[in-house]
């Protein structure tokens, strides 16, 4: 099949329904010889024409310029296959800011490496190789212990607040780098400082890696997680290489001046933190965690409408301690909230849902016991109920069980419209990030007996 040699203009990006676009182009075309149009991903349109001899030929785009050739090469190397249709809409903005923060972190990391080597005795003829080796072994060992403990304590929370933990990891990384830069200034505390910084960096590795995986799940829209991860690794490698080249110029310039080192660290740390904040702030998650659910519910109760993910995500608090969501434990064992049959009956009063909402006996926090048949929407409903109950009562309220029974009716009336509005507005309800534990109960086994 030989090309006719015609030049076609640059095409727009693929719409949501490309098949319809192709059909409309063929129908609307005034060229009767046009039999089909085709495109690869978001590239230019090829037009197939019927020639006089009955063969089908296609119009080939003008031989690509060096700019287009380099652009296409760059995209194939560093962007997921099928970009931008194969990733979420927030992918490009997030990656641009993530690239900037990685570059800044690479430069400050080089400053920290220089300080650590100097503090370990590199260049000092009186320094002991054994002492330096012991310091590095202790640093790595304490970091490994910190990694295990942090994963045990906070591993289940990383998915639920991926954006917040990602920002936390980067802040902690800057703290660790600052400690490494300061370590040579206090020789007597050098080993302790380096070990503490090592623990922080290992925590950063756990939190950063886990949240990166959670964000990849969000960004990959064609079951292409491996491709998105691989291209993210390529981008990070390229940025780190650029950071190393810049560091080769900057580090020797400031190595003899402590204050110049601190100033350079301060500039790139500010840039690093700002880029990180913009990166996580640009992410638009469609799954509900407690913060996003509280924001959407508050707007629904006040305005009667449902905020879309694009409007609710920018309102999500990214710093610890911020936000007005209720403290609730979901998926707790029945024994955590019930100690007698009478208490169980009080929790079941007026309740026809697949959860029991009550208060923990040990901490007084609101807690949810889930039925063994509970689905994701039941978990969402239980947290919505907890938010509403939290506004009306407290653990010390003597009428709290009476108020709890009243709120069952209110939730039963409003939740169907609320849940339908969530789906219509683009929220995912068949899965959630509400940090539900795995305890399940069955309190209606005697029904019908």
Distance between the termini: 76 Å
Oligomer, anyone?
A: single chain
CATH architecture classification of the largest domain: Up-down Bundle
Query: How many discrete domains?
Result: 3
Task: Provide the CATH top-level class of the largest domain.
Answer: Mainly Alpha
* Amount of helix: 55-70%
Structural class of the helix and strand makeup? mainly alpha
Number of strands: 8
Please compute the radius of gyration using only Cα atoms: 29 Å
Largest sheet, if any? 3 strands, antiparallel
Shape: flat
What is the number of helices? 13
Unreliable residue stretches: 1-29
Q: Biggest sheet, strands in spatial order?
A: 1-2-3
Q: Please report which band the strand proportion falls in: under 5%, 5-15%, 15-25%, 25-35%, 35-45% or over 45%.
A: 5-15%
CATH superfamily of the largest domain: MFS general substrate transporter like domains
CATH topology of the largest domain: Growth Hormone, Chain: A
Mean pLDDT: 84
List the helices and strands in order: HEEEHHHHHHHEHHEHEEHHE
Structure write-up:
By secondary structure, the chain is mostly helical. The protein has three domains: 18-63, no CATH class; 91-283, Growth Hormone, Chain: A (Up-down Bundle), CATH 1.20.1250; 288-433, no CATH class. It has helices at residues 18-28, 66-78, 91-119, 129-154, 162-182, 190-219, 225-254, 258-281, 290-303, 309-312, 341-348, 376-390, 400-424, and strands spanning 34-39, 45-50, 56-59, 287-289, 328-330, 355-359, 366-370, 428-433. The chain is flat, with a radius of gyration of 29 Å.
């Amino acid at each position: 099949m030989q090309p006719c040699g015609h030049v076609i203009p640059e095409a727009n990006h693929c719409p949501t329904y490309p098949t319809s676009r192709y059909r409309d182009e063929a129908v609307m075309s005034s060229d009767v010889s046009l039999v089909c149009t085709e495109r690869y991903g978001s590239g230019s349109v090829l037009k197939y024409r019927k020639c006089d001899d009955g063969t089908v030929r296609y119009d080939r785009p003008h031989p690509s310029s060096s700019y287009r050739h380099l652009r296409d090469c760059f995209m194939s190397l560093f962007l997921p296959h099928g970009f931008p249709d194969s990733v979420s809409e927030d992918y490009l903005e997030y990656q641009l800011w993530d690239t900037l923060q990685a570059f800044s972190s690479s430069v400050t990391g080089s400053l920290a490496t220089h300080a650590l080597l100097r503090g370990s005795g590199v260049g000092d003829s009186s320094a002991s190789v054994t002492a330096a080796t012991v310091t590095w072994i202790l640093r790595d060992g304490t970091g490994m212990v910190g990694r295990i403990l942090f994963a045990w304590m906070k591993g289940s929370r990383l998915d639920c607040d991926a954006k917040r933990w990602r920002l936390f990891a980067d802040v902690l990384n800057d703290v660790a780098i600052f400690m490494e830069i300061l370590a040579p200034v206090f020789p007597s505390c050098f080993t302790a400082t380096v070990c503490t910084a090592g623990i922080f960096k290992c925590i950063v590795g756990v939190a950063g890696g886990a949240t990166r995986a959670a964000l990849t799940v969000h960004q990959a829209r064609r079951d292409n997680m491996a491709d998105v991860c691989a291209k993210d690794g390529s981008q990070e490698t390229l940025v780190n290489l650029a950071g190393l080249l810049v560091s080769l110029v900057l580090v020797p310039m400031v190595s003899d001046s402590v204050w110049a080192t601190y100033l350079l660290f301060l500039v790139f740390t500010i840039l690093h933190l700002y880029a990180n904040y913009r990166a996580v702030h640009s992410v638009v998650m469609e799954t509900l965690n407690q913060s996003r659910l509280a924001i959407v519910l508050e707007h629904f109760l006040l305005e009667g409408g449902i905020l879309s993910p694009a409007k609710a995500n920018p309102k999500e608090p990214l710093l610890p301690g911020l936000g007005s969501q209720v403290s609730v434990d979901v998926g707790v064992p029945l024994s955590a909230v019930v100690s007698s049959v009478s208490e169980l009956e009080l929790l079941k009063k007026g309740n026809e849902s697949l959860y029991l909402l009550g208060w923990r006996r040990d901490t007084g926090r609101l807690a949810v016991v889930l039925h063994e048949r509970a689905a994701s929407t039941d978990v969402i409903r239980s947290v919505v109920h907890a938010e509403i109950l939290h506004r009306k009562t407290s653990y010390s309220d003597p009428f709290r069980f009476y108020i709890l029974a009243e709120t069952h009716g209110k939730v039963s009336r409003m939740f169907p419209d609320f849940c339908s509005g969530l789906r219509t507005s683009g929220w995912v309800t068949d899965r959630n990030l509400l940090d539900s534990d795995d305890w399940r109960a069955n309190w209606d086994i005697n029904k019908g007996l």
